[in-house]
Every structure is written in C-alpha cells, then in structure tokens.
C-alpha cells in the first residue's frame, strides 16, 4: 500500500473516532453522566478526528457555542488537508 493510502485510512479512522466521541459526549451530557473532557476532544481533533467531529457537531448541535471548537476544528481540518496535499506533492 502507498503512503497516501495509509494516511487516508488514518484520517478516516480518526474521523470515525471523532464522530463517536462527539456522539457519546452529547448523549452523556443529556443523561447527566461522565463526559469526555474538552481537552481530550480537542486532542482527538488535532490528531485527525476534526472532520468527523465537526460534521457531527453540526448535525447534533453539540459544542457549537464553544469558540475553541467552532474555530479550532476547521483550523485542524485545513492543517490535515495541507498534510495530505504535501504528501501527495512530495511523493
């Protein structure tokens, strides 16, 4: 498999993890249960889960009033796209 394939699989898996983490946090908030910390969610977004998290947040209206999520996740998405573009360009 090529390096770009590994990179795309990595981002896809991380996006799914971001999706499920956002869903879990929303359901935990509604049920009054233990939640995922904002720091952990942002780290997950930084390490590749930002796309899944951002889409999920828009669909379920979760964390949309938090500027660090509404600005930070799109910034992470741009960084991820730049990384993918750089790998494509330099390989």
Along the chain, the helix and strand elements come as: HHH
Strand content: under 5%
Cα shape: elongated
Question: What does the main sheet amount to?
Answer: none
Structure class: mainly alpha
Number of domains: 1
What is the first-to-last residue Cα distance? 13 Å
Tally of helical segments: 3
Stretches where pLDDT falls below 50 for ≥5 residues? none
Gyration radius, rounded? 14 Å
Helix content: over 70%
How confident is the prediction overall: mean pLDDT?
94
Structure notes:
The protein is an all-alpha fold and 91 residues long. It has three helices and no strands. 26% of the residues are buried. The model has no long low-confidence stretch (mean pLDDT 94).
Descriptive tags:
3 helices; mainly alpha; 91 residues; elongated; 84% helix
Summary of the model, kept short:
The chain is an all-alpha fold and 91 residues long.
Set down the secondary structure blueprint.
Layout: H1 3-31, H2 38-60, H3 67-90
